[in-house]
Amino acid sequence: MADSQTYSLSGTDGQRLIYGLSLASVAIFINLYLTQGMLPMLAERFDVSAGHSTLVVSVTSFSLALSLLGYALLSDRIGRRRPLIASLWLLALSNLLLFWVPDFDALLWLRLGQGMLLASVPAIAMAYLKDRLPPVMLMTAAALYIAANSFGGIAGRLLGGVMAQYLDWNQAVLLLTVLTLLLVASAQWLLGIDRGADKRHVRQGQGALGGFVLHLGNPYLRGLYLLGGLAFMVMVNQFSFIQLHLMAEPFGWNRFQATLIFLCYLSGTLSSGQSARLMNKLGTVPLLILSIGLMALGSVLTLANTELAICLGFLCSACGFFLIHACCNSLVALGAEQHRAKATALYLCSYYLGAALGGPFLMPFWQTWHWQGVVAGSLLLIAANALALWRWQHLAKSRQLDTPVSLRRCRN
Description:
InterPro entries: MFS (IPR011701), MFS_dom (IPR020846), MFS_trans_sf (IPR036259). Its main location: membrane. Belongs to the major facilitator superfamily. This protein has helices at about 10-35, 40-45, 50-55, 55-80, 80-95, 105-120, 120-130, 135-165, 170-190, 210-215, 220-245, 255-260, 265-275, 275-280, 285-300, 305-335, 340-400, 405-410. By secondary structure, it is mainly α. α1 (about 10-35) packs parallel to α8 (about 135-165) and α4 (about 55-80) packs parallel to α7 (about 120-130). The chain is globular and about 55 Å long.
């Protein structure tokens, strides 16, 4: 394989690559989470229960999770840019099919297919940046890209609430399609400077699946995958069900007002930015214990059933969740001394599988006991995550030779 430094971008071209991938990320996460802000509208339009409407988030996350692994393999074989650009255009055009969706089952199948397209950017972007940028630009690039993820997620949910409140279905689909086309066209224009990227490699990977097998055989990494997956299983689905709770009595929030709860994600955006400093100051395990505790505290606070208590609870939960996510993401990258892109893909796969499985898991709790049931189900998952953390710490201590020195330092 050619020396990656020969192909490195810097200066203006490097900035265009960063901005192009950031815009692509915004497009992806708006399309991923827009339906989460439209759940009440979807329930009414397709005549399904409010709880049943949350499946539209679960099926998209499920297909996204499984597709991450395929894109990781594909981009190693044919390059980063081509599969990324192709999937973005297919996503934009697939939104046109929403005009003719006849029922909720058809919507679920369409979103299942779109989830496969949505996986491209999360699977490829960080490897693309590592391939093409000099080390001095990489940290800034990663920070901007992660910020774009967060912005896209919040913007998608709030935009979904605005659409549900003020637009009908066809108007909402038209706005989504036009917005996605504009973002994709802008991203392609910015990434146009890097047309040589796909010629630079077809990786000579001996055993394309070998990296996945290697990482899945490592109990240290498996523990991190479980920690991230269980945390997201709680977090993303709590945000789905709380909208339905806030729209019911005694609150009576409208569709748009209910999506404002997603602004609580900002506490997580801020906390994740401080995660490296906190890991160095407190140590990884104490920080993870604190983070799981914050998620439990936040869930319990919402049982007070006042608007202030619910907002404070979600601020705590989001803070704790994003600290867990930031810690696990960093430790996976540090712990995988080979095939790092595949290790990250496996982490993201478990992360989004958690989101997909959380909806069906919590739905019976919602149907039986409403929000109090969702909290009870969430606390069960948080307890399972605490047990997983204890198990992970025990394995890490007993397998000193299986973890790099950098991890041994940050774990203590």
